[in-house]
Amino acid sequence: SAVISQKPSRDICQRGTSLTIQCQVDSQVTMMFWYRQQPGQSLTLIATANQGSEATYESGFVIDKFPISRPNLTFSTLTVSNLSPEDSSIYLCSVVGLAGSGTQYFGPGTRLLVL
Amino acid sequence: AQSVTQPDIHITVSEGASLELRCNYSYGATPYLFWYVQSPGQGLQLLLKYFSGDTLVQGIKGFEAEFKRSQSSFNLRKPSVHWSDAAEYFCAVGASSGGYQKVTFGTGTKLQVIP
After folding, report:
1. Per-residue pLDDT for B109 more than 60?
2. Cα–Cα distance measured from residue B74 to residue B57, given in angstroms and rounded to the nearest whole number
3. Is B101's Cβ below 8 Å from some Cβ in A?
4. Most buried among A95, A112, B24, B89, by the most CB within 10 A?
């Protein structure tokens, strides 16, 4: 399994500002995923990030709101821009395990509260 | 597109009692199936997974799940629940999409354990 860390673990932000979340993996991975978990809800995939290419966004998520960087095979950032209270959620980074296993492993999450 | 239904939003069991959490999936081919657990304030931990082969899979913490193709189900079971099992449980289905497994999560079942 992969060991995934996220920074920050939690933050409180003012509306209109932005927050950048970092995800670090202890091994090289091709694909990284960013999920959102709104209060009391399940996980929703925001986008898939491959190293060296543009992220692929799911329906309802756009690059202007959720820009993603993937500079190398162990690191990615997700920025949540122009924050509103509706963005208060847990944001989780995920990677796929051993090639072909299909298993996703998750970071501890970043808890965001927007005031 | 694949989907997952967890019909029970909240379940309460007594410590030491048996547990079964229901999960039904929809997918046109043989799915990859997962159960994850999320303890309060924690990230997601993989309990077990089914890819192929034996339809009864064993996981960590004494959990098991049985894949029943005829019923499109992948129910999670534990013979004797411990207080530390109180958490939220997510069933997920993975399907091939553009060369990787796209995972869709159910809405979760929150487990309460009473003395």
Report:
1. yes
2. 10
3. yes
4. A95
Residues in chain B closer than 8 A to A41 (CB atoms)? 107
Cis peptide before A8 (omega within 30 of 0): yes
How much is the pLDDT for B97?
Answer: 64
Q: Reply yes or no on whether the pLDDT at B64 is more than 80.
A: yes
Whether the CB of A85 is below 8 Å from some CB of chain B: the reply is no
Nearest Cα neighbor of A93 from A79, A113, A110, A69 is: A110
* Residues written for chain B: 115
Q: Does A113 touch chain B (CB under 8 A)?
A: no
Chain A partners of B94 at a C-beta cutoff of 8 Å?
Answer: 102, 104
* Beta strands A104-106 and B3-5, pairing class: unpaired
Of B42, B51, B105, the CB nearest to A108: B42
Do residues B87 and B111 make contact, with C-beta atoms less than 8 angstroms apart? yes
Q: Which helix (H) or strand (E) holds A77?
A: strand A75-80
pLDDT tens profile A11-52: 999 999 999 999 999 988 888 999 999 988 889 999 999 888
Reduced to 3 states (helix: H, G, I; strand: E, B; else coil), residue B62 is helix
Rounded-to-integer distance, Cα B47 and Cα B60, Å: 5
Test A43 with B90 for CB contact under 8 angstroms.
yes
Cβ–Cβ contact A42 with B under 8 A? yes
Contact B32 A106 (CB under 8 A): no
Q: For the residues A86-107, what does the mean pLDDT come to?
A: 83
